Amino acid sequence: MKPLYVIKIGGNVIDNSENLHYFLNDFASLDGYKILIHGGGKIATDLSHTMGIEPKMVDGRRITDIETLRVVTMVYAGLINKNIVAQLQRFSCNAIGLTGADANLIRAARRPVKDIDYGFVGDLNPYSVDSQKLAALLETAVVPVFSAITHDGEGQLLNTNADTIASSIAVAMSGLYKTSLVYCFEKKGVLRDVNSDESVIREISSSEFAGLKADNVIAGGMLPKLENAFKAINSGVSEVYIGKSDELPYLNEQSFGTRLFE
Amino acid sequence: MKPLYVIKIGGNVIDNSENLHYFLNDFASLDGYKILIHGGGKIATDLSHTMGIEPKMVDGRRITDIETLRVVTMVYAGLINKNIVAQLQRFSCNAIGLTGADANLIRAARRPVKDIDYGFVGDLNPYSVDSQKLAALLETAVVPVFSAITHDGEGQLLNTNADTIASSIAVAMSGLYKTSLVYCFEKKGVLRDVNSDESVIREISSSEFAGLKADNVIAGGMLPKLENAFKAINSGVSEVYIGKSDELPYLNEQSFGTRLFE
Predict the structure, then answer these.
(1) β-pair type (A122-123, A109-110)
(2) Closest by Cβ to A70, choosing from B70, B79, B155
């Protein structure tokens, strides 16, 4: 199978135009099939403030009401997505900006109301991503760039977690490509010592992960990240990388951040 | 050659959610290859007001400064485009929302500063539209939906006239498809008597057009519209229709609005 990189960047890259510029240049230089997924960042929060929309929280969880959905659709799918695409084009990367609604590539289900009504938030299932259609796009030599907006197939756009979109795309594509899932975040990788940025663990197999958990080396916010990563690996993804966006060029040498594998 | 419809809708359709709903249902039902181009409407103006951005005019012409470009990118390429796509998906039309930056489909040149600096406005030339790439997309059975945003290939998004995008796409595609260009506007067609909405002229050939101009039947704002339409026909487009969006179903019977031909 041909290799495919599915790469996710978050607010820490998007909010800093210099970081974003360098990342996009590096991303454009990466050989082979690739898909980019970007989160939101502060711009949506800033625009909400300007528009007088107060963030709605219930039990500490953010709610996507109809006004907030309008804002994230404008900022994620419009402003951020199209500026990323234009910059990638400048770097000779033939990017195409997408939401899950486009070509019906990612169909979500609005999160059911239990204790909390999250509003217009979409959850994904194993059949959400149309891998055949996405592969057909890849084969026309374009590079898909997804914002974290999906739809329900009934005309409703939905705000959807960008990490979840990235892993769902990676799992769905793993039947057609040898798929590597790459998460860029603020650290250089999984750290053995949280106080030392240089203590990156280079590789973790699923059996080693069990040991590191038992020894409490991996804990806190890193734990669910890695649980989800190994879930993707168990569902067909070849490997997951977690590292810092400015080290993306090392991905070709397989020495980017922490590599997780079966 | 296979037939292709290139259809442009403007603010009068977009600003009225009921009109838009019916139009998109009719558009979804239209057989064969088709491309939709949409303008902006009042939403961008409203958002600018909310954000405290005053419209900049020079000699009566609207200027797209950097703040206005941000607003139109959010509203046209984000909010309007993605809601149109989600609604078309609901009507089982496999729409994909695009700007000219996406897949480098429409590359514009920033309008040169002469007497007026129009700001971030893009002009098109005969080589602006990548017809091969657009055809490759059409052949994957998706329906392209363009907002009126293009790019310069150097990382800069540009605000671009939607009518011009529609005619440029139609001309570029006319080498590959038997292309009909369709403009939806507020009237049922070209009227013989401006005071009677029912006085639609059904067909106008280019030689008849010369006569109607000489007799002053066609004058005012309709004149440049028709001049541009016949320019497109002279450049390879098979026919141009001008009519009202709610009469789109008549297009299949070639009895939509006014039909212009060579």
Answers:
(1) antiparallel
(2) B79
What does chain A come to in residues? 262
pLDDT category at A68 given cuts 50, 70, 90 is very high
Residue A108 belongs to what H/E stretch?
Answer: none
Query: Which of A78, A86, A103 is the closest to B151 by Cβ?
Result: A86
Query: How many C-alpha atoms does A178 have within 13 Å on its Cβ side?
Result: 5
ipTM: 0.96
Q: Look at A194 and B201; give whichever has higher pLDDT.
A: B201
Q: Select the residue of B70, B78, B89 nearest A104 (Cβ to Cβ).
A: B89
Report, as an integer, the average pLDDT of B173-191: 96
Which strand (E) or helix (H) includes residue B33? strand B33-38
Mean of the pLDDT values across residues B135-161? 97
Query: How far A142 CA lies from chain B's nearest CA (Å)?
Result: 6
* Pair of tokens at residue B175: 């080498």
Rounded Cα–Cα distance for residues A26 and A47 (Å): 29
C-alpha to C-alpha distance for B138 and B117, rounded to whole angstroms: 36
Report CB contact under 8 Å: A78, B83. Answer: no
Neighbours of A110 (CB within 10 A): 18
Percent of chain A with pLDDT over 70: 100
Interchain pair A86, B156: CB under 8 A: yes
Interface contact A217, partner B, CB < 8 A: no
Q: Would you state the pLDDT for residue B57?
A: 83
Interchain contact B36–A (C-beta under 8 A): no
The answer to whether the beta carbons of residues A119 and A156 sit under 8 Å apart is no
Annotated domain spans of chain A:
3-261
Q: How far apart are CA B243 and CA A202, in angstroms?
A: 64
Span A192-210, mean pLDDT?
Answer: 94
B125 Cβ partners below 8 Å, 6+ apart?
B109
Question: What pLDDT, on a 0 to 100 scale, did the predictor assign at position B145?
Answer: 98
CATH architecture of A3-261: 3-Layer(aba) Sandwich (3.40)
Averaged pLDDT of chain A: 95
Which one-letter DSSP state was computed for residue A99? -
Residue B222 dihedral angles phi and psi, to the nearest 5°: -75, -25
Interchain proximity A153–B89, CB inside 8 Å: yes
Above 90 in pLDDT, residue B169?
yes
In this predicted model, what pLDDT tens digit does every residue of B36-75 receive, in sequence order? Answer: 999 888 999 999 999 999 888 888 788 999 999 999 999 9
Short-list B162, B160, B146, CA closest to B96? B146
- 3-class state of residue A56 by DSSP: strand
pLDDT given for residue B60 in this prediction: 76
